[in-house]
Fold this protein.
Amino acid sequence: HLVESGGGLVQPGGSLRLSCAASGSSFSSYVMSWYRQAPGKEREVFASIRSAGGVTSYVDSVKGRFIISRDNHKNMVYLQMNGLKPEDTAVYYCYSGAGHWGQGTQVTVSS
């Protein structure tokens, strides 16, 4: 069970921090990812973090602007988003390697 929070409306160039709270005892075993789905587009993965060691990966469109992190003691995954652009507007989803999705949180970047 995953629950995202932290979405909202932000101006271009602004920042947001998303959080994903996970339940269950095996959280630290799984790769965690963030996906997003813009209006009229398919859901896409853009950031992932491995279970141990904190190795991360990003798609080019967010590299250098977004940072994914996790706290295995708190069963939390975070997404720090900086330099937001209108094209980042989407519903953002947390995904667990166990096959679980969160309900999504809306991020709107607009002036």
Observations:
- The chain has a mean pLDDT of 95.
- The radius of gyration is 13 Å.
